Amino acid sequence: MSSRGVGVERFDRLAREAVEDIVSRALEQHVSGNSGGKAKELASDSQLHRVTNLLEQEGVAELGKLANHQKDKEKASAPVFWEMVSTIVDCRESALDEFLRVVDQSGYTWEQVAPRFFSLLVTEIKYQQSADLRGKSRRR
Amino acid sequence: MAKELRVKIAATLVDEAKTLESLGQEAANLDDDAKTQMSKLEQIGLGASSFTEIISYVKRQSGRRQSGGNVWDLHFSRRVIDLVARLEERARELAGGSDEEVIRQRLPAELGGQALRHVNSAYLFAVRERKGS
């Protein structure tokens, strides 16, 4: 999706709101399900990098396959993260409803806007993880 | 852009003047050698086609494991994000609630960018004051 043109403000704002909501919930779920504490983070840099690369090179369908594969793997690392990716790719995430409605109205497809959406998602995950880690280190 | 809108933009920046000044000072307290980063923030603002572009840039800098400098402290980043979110809301009011009008009037750059330009000016001045003449 071009980042320019009429509608980008609305696209971006709705995407940002959805992303903030989704990542906050995923982080809460990750923390509450991780009291024994294996993974410190919702997703590692390499996992985030993998998502971005796959999306750019292969498209959203392949990302969906990867997410489903990863979340079904026994002892998969970052299960909450892969479930989140899978839910987003399949548009089963209710926080996406308004964003997708506007995308649909504008004539774009989910496949076209997914790279922009996931770019915001990756940024949000890094930001919230970083804020969380810095908050913890300050509390110590 | 209509004169009336220009006046409202200017009035909004005046309303935020104390915040813009204190953000510049906070940045100078955090890192008095961050001219490039502060200048980049201003450029991102002045070239922004959406407020999310600015917020996303701040989050990217703040979220980096090894940040490009000390200026992207969490508290400072959150204050910049809060400022831009407030300006986004104000821009929508000025545009009569229309996202299309926000873009047509280039309000992310005119309001967000100009605000960040003031922050950078306040930063440069604070650094200069600190280092003396």
Instruction: List the chains of the largest interface with their residue counts.
Output: A-B, 27 and 23 residues
Low-pLDDT sequence parts of chain B: none
Helix content of chain B: over 70%
Element-level helix/strand string of chain A: HHHHHH
Q: What general form of chain B does the structure show?
A: globular
SSE succession of chain B: HHHHHHH
Helix content of chain A: over 70%
The 3D shape of chain A can be described as: globular
Summed over residues and divided by their number, the pLDDT of chain B gives a mean of: 93
N- to C-terminal distance of chain A: 43 Å
Report low-confidence residues of chain A grouped into runs of 5 or more: 1-6
**Could you give a short account of the major beta sheet of chain A?**
none
Based on helices, strands and strand pairing, what is the structural class of chain B?
mainly alpha
Q: Can you describe this structure in just a few lines?
A:
The complex is a heterodimer of chains A (140) and B (133). Chain A is mainly α.
What would you note in describing this structure?
The complex is a heterodimer of chains A (140) and B (133). Chain A is an all-alpha fold and 140 residues long. Chain A has six helices and no strands. In chain A, helix 1 packs antiparallel against helix 5 and helix 3 packs antiparallel against helix 4 (79-89). Chain A starts with 7 loop residues before the first helix and ends with a helix. Chain B has 133 residues and is mainly α. In chain B, 78% of the residues lie in helices and 0% in strands. Chain B has helices spanning 3-15, 17-30, 35-46, 51-63, 74-94, 99-104, 107-131. The radius of gyration of chain B is 15 Å and the shape is globular. The N and C termini of chain B lie far apart (40 Å). The mean pLDDT of chain B is 93. Chain A binds chain B through residues 3-13, 15-16, 45, 119-120, 123-131, 134-135, and chain B through 49-53, 55-56, 59-60, 62-65, 74, 77-78, 88, 99-100, 102-104, 108.
